[in-house]
């Protein structure tokens, strides 16, 4: 089974943070409650950005940098 890309649109946040633990600090820096949230198995980056009124492209870039993918 291959590892999904961080930018896959339907990747749940809990899986994202498990596969790339360095991304947790990005969520915390933005004061997002996604870390440990019961909804994180169902929410995606798009959902979180919509909920917190963040620019999705900029946020994704931050996540990719934190994950060491850039």
UniProtKB/TrEMBL annotation:
Residue stretches spanning the membrane: none
InterPro entries, alphabetized: CHP03980_redox-disulphide, ScdA-like_N_sf
Name of the protein this chain belongs to: DUF1858 domain-containing protein
Species for this entry: Roseobacter ponti
């Amino acid at each position: 089974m291959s590892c999904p890309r961080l930018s896959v649109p339907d990747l749940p946040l809990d899986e994202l943070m498990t596969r790339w633990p360095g991304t947790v600090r990005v969520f915390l820096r933005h004061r997002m409650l996604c870390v440990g949230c019961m909804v994180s198995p169902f929410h995606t980056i798009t959902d979180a950005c919509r909920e917190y009124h963040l620019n999705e492209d900029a946020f994704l870039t931050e996540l990719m940098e934190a994950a060491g993918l850039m």
